Amino acid sequence: MEAVFLKIYGHVQGVGFRYFTYRIAHRLGVKGYVRNAEDGTVEIHAEGDKSSLEQFVKEVSRGPSSAIITKVECNPTTYQGFEDFTITR
Questions:
Q1: Which residues does the annotation mark as catalytic?
Q2: For the chain, what are the domain ranges?
Q3: 24-52 pLDDT, tens per residue?
Q4: What sequence ranges are listed for the domain Acylphosphatase-like (predicted)?
């Protein structure tokens, strides 16, 4: 299993981004969390097999139609063994 941490910049809060991410994660079997950060970005910790994570990052990077994404940072991170995908904050 692998893990990545994403930080999504732009107009991404208040547009359904967390629920959009949640639906994709559940469809692909990705575990972790999505949350709104205080700086106006969305942060995502995602865990899963390599192909599922690649597809997840690709879809999340597009965002919902109401979002305006200006930048996506995606970095490998430590696998923590999440059992589900949750929305926090």
A1: 18, 36
A2: 2-79
A3: 999 999 999 999 999 999 999 999 999 99
A4: 3-89
